[in-house]
Amino acid sequence: MEKAKKVSVKKAWEYNLRGIRAYWKISPMLICAIIIEGMFSAAAPYAGIWLSARFIDELTGERRPGRLWELAAAVLLAELVLNICCQMLLQRSALQDRRPDLYGKISGYGLSCYG
């Protein structure tokens, strides 16, 4: 078996920035969609945890039934909205990746859109 070449962190950053610049020249909205999707994906677990903590605080505190229903609905709604936003952005970036005009322009950079 061959040993895989190790790439330094500096070289990896250079390659990543080169790829981002290549995509940015062709489709800036694709990069924006990917970044925003990443933020939504990162926020989704924290929103659920934070709202669940409020729910537990209410259970251990005053136990108001109306407030418990509000918090339970807020947890479900937050998860739903964040997941829908993530899926929409993923779908947009997937559609951008399949555009034939992008493939011809980006392939010159050594990148593949169909992977």
Q: How would you describe what is shown here?
A:
There is one protein chain. The chain has 115 residues and is mostly helical. The chain is 79% helix and 0% strand. It has four helices and no strands. Helix 2 runs antiparallel to helix 3. The two termini are 25 Å apart. The C terminus is likely disordered.
Which key phrases capture this entry?
disordered C terminus, elongated, 79% helix, 115 residues, mainly alpha
Task: Give a topology summary.
Blueprint: H1 9-26, H2 28-60, H3 65-97, H4 100-106
Helix pairs in contact: 1-2, 2-3
Major β-sheet annotation: none
Amount of helix: over 70%
- Based on CA atoms alone, the radius of gyration comes out at 21 Å
Number of DSSP E strands: 0
N-C termini distance: 25 Å
The succession of helices and strands, N to C, reads: HHHH
Average pLDDT figure: 77
**Low-pLDDT regions:** 106-115
Brief summary of the model shown:
The protein has 115 residues and is mostly helical. It has 4 helices and no strands. The protein has helices at 9-26, 28-60, 65-97, 100-106.
